[in-house]
Design goal:
Length: 480
């Protein structure tokens, strides 16, 4: 079967001009370029970033005949292409994309292209928070339950399309799918076999015009499902976005507006909440992770995995890097890396996870134009706040100076190392009176919580670059 797929794609794309828009540093652009170069296509990669900022990705393609047009875009590349692969963060309204569409040139995105070709089954996970953790939980669950399963989607370093060289109709792919990637599913009019929603909060309003646009893209994960498919929903969504799932019901059953949760439920729609997970998590903290665990358990039930075995596997999951990751300890100070917190609500979740501890919060970066009033109110709960430079910090600085001036740092830091050192200094100034306990965290330990609540682009390439830098700094502090 893999040979049949590859032979078919080679026949279609060999000698064709394939344009990859957005090389990036996380592997997606590299994967697409490599896949089509291997098929014999004439591949050109274009990115608005200059060569020196993309060397890591360029070097990964050095063995292939790939053309690079960097530091800006050339309209001729778009108009002369046979097919264009658009990166997730590239806007559909980008002038060159619009002109190419006018000419009838097909615009593809990696995950929707993969889903349209892959003969097996896909479990797609979306949501504002918890996507990556839930995706990894479900992948581990299937892997340890002897399924032939692959991890895909918008995760760093993973090129889902390259799996087409080996996958068969008997395989499963568990993939994280962002709202940006889901826009491609709308255009293909396809949805995963099992679709899972972790939650929905305002996000990416620096990309979308409004929340309705964001929700529209999210809806692609289930709106094209077939009768035999499954939709797994966080039950809280029926309160926060009560009309969001209406299309699914009206398409299938012709009902009018929803009147109750009971009317909404169908045989292929499953709800979950944190109460549905019957065990404690050994390594993950916070109610949000109990929700992630409960979601994974629903997948186990659909696939008829022994529930007791599933609970054991899920309970033992150690978590992912950069998501409330405990990096190290020194002198009763615990350093926590939550760099993937790029929204105010994510920082609130992090504060909740350490609510019984003294927190020195490192906060700030660039804005996504999201509501922040609830976060501002919650900041009274932390001991001190060390601020990082960026447009989000600019938005909240005057409010913080007026409401909690005693808690915020005297300066706004444009250097992460200086900010972390200041946070550690503030910890030492607090009277903790503790000694380290290697086996568990006591309530009176101090936590340096790096949960910025904003994007990283003021100072870093992306949040993962930011997270790596935080870990490097913490290791340096611990080793002194």
């Amino acid at each position: 079967m893999p040979k049949d797929i590859i032979d078919s794609l080679k026949k279609k794309y060999q000698g064709k001009k394939v344009l990859v828009v957005g090389l990036g540093l996380q592997g997606g652009g590299v994967g697409i370029a490599r896949f089509f170069a291997d098929l014999g296509a004439n591949v050109t990669v274009t990115d608005k970033k200059p060569k020196e900022k993309l060397l890591q990705s360029i070097n990964r393609l050095s063995d292939l005949p790939v053309n690079f047009h960097l530091g800006g875009h050339q309209l001729s590349d778009f108009l002369e292409a046979d097919v264009i692969f658009k990166g997730p963060s590239v806007l559909w309204s980008m002038p060159e994309i619009v002109e190419a569409e006018k000419k009838g040139i097909p615009i593809e995105m990696e995950l929707s292209f993969f889903a349209s070709v892959f003969p097996g089954k896909i479990i797609g996970i979306t949501g504002t928070r918890g996507k990556s953790t839930t995706t990894q939980l479900i992948f581990n669950l299937l892997k340890l339950s002897d399924f032939s399963v692959y991890l895909g989607g918008g995760l760093p370093g993973i090129s889902t399309t390259n799996y087409l060289k080996t996958l068969t109709e008997n395989d499963w792919v568990v993939m994280e799918i962002s709202s940006w990637a889901l826009s491609g599913f709308h255009r293909k009019k396809i949805s995963p076999h099992i679709a899972l929603f972790t939650n929905i909060y305002p996000d990416h309003l620096n990309y979308y015009k409004n929340m309705d646009e964001y929700l529209y893209d999210k809806k692609a994960i289930f709106v094209y499902q077939k009768e035999s498919n499954y939709l797994i929903i966080n039950s809280s969504l029926l309160d926060s976005v009560p009309n969001f799932f209406y299309t699914r019901v009206s398409l299938r059953q012709g009902r009018g507006p929803l009147e109750s949760k009971k009317k909404f439920v169908t045989s292929s729609t499953i709800f979950f909440s944190k109460k549905d997970f019957p065990n404690k998590l050994k390594y993950l903290m916070g109610d949000h992770n109990l929700e992630n665990a409960a979601a994974a358990l629903q997948v186990a039930k659909i696939l008829k995995i022994n529930e007791r075995k599933a609970v054991k596997i899920i309970s033992s999951f150690k978590g992912l890097p950069f998501r409330q990751e405990i990096v190290g300890e020194k002198n009763s100070v615990v350093f926590v890396n939550d760099t993937t917190s790029t929204t105010p609500i994510a920082t609130i979740k992090a504060i909740d996870s350490f609510k019984n501890k003294k927190i020195i919060l490192i906060l700030g970066g660039n804005s996504k134009n999201l509501p922040f009033n609830t976060l501002i109110k919650r900041l009274i709960e932390v001991e001190k706040i060390v601020l990082l430079a960026g447009s989000f910090t600019d938005q909240i600085l005057d409010i913080l100076r007026e409401s909690i001036p005693e808690k915020i740092s005297k300066k706004v830091y444009d250097n992460l190392e200086e900010a972390v050192i200041e946070a550690y200094r503030l910890c030492k100034s607090l009277d903790s009176g503790l000694r380290l306990n290697d086996k568990k965290y006591r309530n009176d330990k101090i936590v340096v919580l790096f949960s910025p609540g904003a994007t990283s682009f003021a100072m870093f390439n992306n949040e993962f670059h930011r997270g790596d830098e935080f870990n490097r700094i913490v290791k340096k502090i611990i080793d002194i």
